[in-house]
Amino acid sequence: MNATASAPTPATAAEPTAVSERRLAQVRWSLLFGNFVIGCGVMVPVGTLPDISRSLSVSVGVAGQLVAVAAVMMCFGAPLLAGWVGALDRRKLLAAALAWFAIGHALCALMPSFAALLPLRALTVLGAAVFTPQAAAAIGAMTAPAQRAGAITFIFIGWSIASVVGVPISAWLGDTFGWQSAFLAVGAIGAVGAAWILATVPEGVRPATLTLAAWRAAFGNPVLMAMVLVTALAGAGQFTLFSYFAPYFKEVVGASTREVTLLFVVFGVFGVVGNTLASRHVDRFGADRAVGVTLALMTLSLLAWPLATSSIAAAVVLVPWALACFSMQSMQQARLGAAAPTLAPALMALNSSAIYLGQAAGAASGGWLIARHGYASLSFVGLAWMAAAIALSVWAARARRRAQ
Fold it and tell me: pTM of the full predicted structure?
């Protein structure tokens, strides 16, 4: 039995909504920008962590829980909200999600204490919990099956561009004007993104409704669930260290504010390159193989991390990780969409949850390690998470091939 055999939704659920090629191109770019906004907002604490810690009088480990708590909210929010919003028109839903995200970040900038910031941040990221999986499901519903994987990975380029522009600029804004300015910037671009969605996404786009039977089919398929768990394990491996890049570079590597910004730029530039290459070639090489390559590249960087003793060495060590970081998430979405097209809305929501679950686990474990053992053990714990991801990914790929 293959991965889609128990899918309860009708066959037409995988058929594309009628959209002209020109309109589809406009939609792809607006959804890419929407993911750019989401990426900037999700990662804005990473770049501003030192200033948040300093200005709100909390430790770096405590400030890092902004990443962990937000990730937990997005983890559980993505599948729960996917069921509640299933019948809504995606044009209005996606615009509303970005508007919520924008307003929430603007309000976060006004918070006078960490105790006030944390719960508001948790509520704000519910917009991300809705937008990313629903954008993937929407573009899938508008794209022919043969081009679906490439379309999904294309809109995820927005996340990698966020690492090029969003994280370095947020780090610079945090050091120069305070963390509040970075949150306000996310609010501003979020408003632009909401308007762009309204201008380009056609009305009437409604991917297959998530029924209870669809959720049962997804959860009951061990191969699909293994693929989703790969996302969580890889995310934990990355965010054990990635959540604390800014203070690590400053305190361990001895990088200046300018050098920290440049390191984030290096990471982001190669992230865009990796995701762009992935979106162009995934349909030809296959998502299973692409996921394996990205996991191997990130493992290589974690193995070499002890060599990152200067800004130049850190930049070199970051390159394989950056090439794979965001493209891995894109490949996972494409992998799941190809494995069970009629279950795509449920699987996209679950995979988004897995992304955020991994971020939460990684950020929380990293904060715990820093508080008790310092920064030295972060890369080794990240390697353990990544090794588990590789082993499970290999098993899932083999099991899928046997079932076909």
Answer: 0.70
